[in-house]
Amino acid sequence: MSVFAGIDLGGTHTRFAVMADGAFVLSEKYVTTDLMAAGPKLAGVIARYREVADRAGRKPQAVGIGLPATLDADRRVVLSAPNVDGLDGLDVVSLLEGAFGVPVVAERDVNFQFFHDMKASGRTPRVALGVYIGTGVGNAVWINGFYTGAHGSAAELGHIPVPGATGVCGCGKVGCLETVCCGRWLKGWQERNAPDTPIADIFARHGDHPDIRNFVETAAMSVATAVNIIDPELVFLGGGVLEMPAFPFETLKTRLLAHARAPFPRDVLEVRLASNLGDSGARGACLYVAGKFGTVQ
């Protein structure tokens, strides 16, 4: 029996998944702050993983962990994790391999979510793009494998500068895409302009407002920028914002294609809505290490 485990350490929740002989047999969710409060150097995550592995009934052969962070070029050391205290500068791979006794692969959380979406689609194209708009903007690039750049910091669409934007981003820069096109911006708009509207109903009730229409157009132009640079075969668009009721996905797709270079990639580009499984990041981590260290049935 081949057994692999995935961990998706998010800013709010941490999810664990176990896959045996190609089938997912276990998925559990915990509050990240509780795990991080259990001790330094991921002590809570390590303890919970051991409990999950025990319940699975067999020790996994390898573990993938997705992190809400930028990693070094070797994909071992956390360079910056602004939403989870205690990770900056940590050699996660050495730490977890020592604790688990098996190979560990670390990646940005969005990369494993994106990998799950590709596998679920039945395709692993040569070039693909993923953009996930939630609290912030997650971005993944696949060019015969995850494209991570010269220093490990590639695929940061959320931090491209937007002309006229003046907000301060969580990264410390001014005018990043994340300051005008993410769930955090929508929440601020709702508080200022529609305080009686639940945030989940913003698109259903205010989708025709010029600010909300501009939000969708900004998203389309930004994704099209990445499309025109890397010429992908397949694009996944997802995240919590796109899962909100009445989000105009078809409008986003149409406007994206309107900005894409013609005839290619526009005329052949496949644009799909990403999965909304809560544990897709942990599942993607399982699938990735299974492909690297074993087989996927």
TrEMBL record:
InterPro entries, A to Z: ATPase_NBD, ROK
MF-aspect GO terms: hexokinase activity
SUPFAM superfamilies per UniProt: Actin-like ATPase domain
CDD domains: ASKHA_NBD_ROK_AlsK
Name this protein carries in UniProt: Allose kinase
Organism: uncultured Pleomorphomonas sp
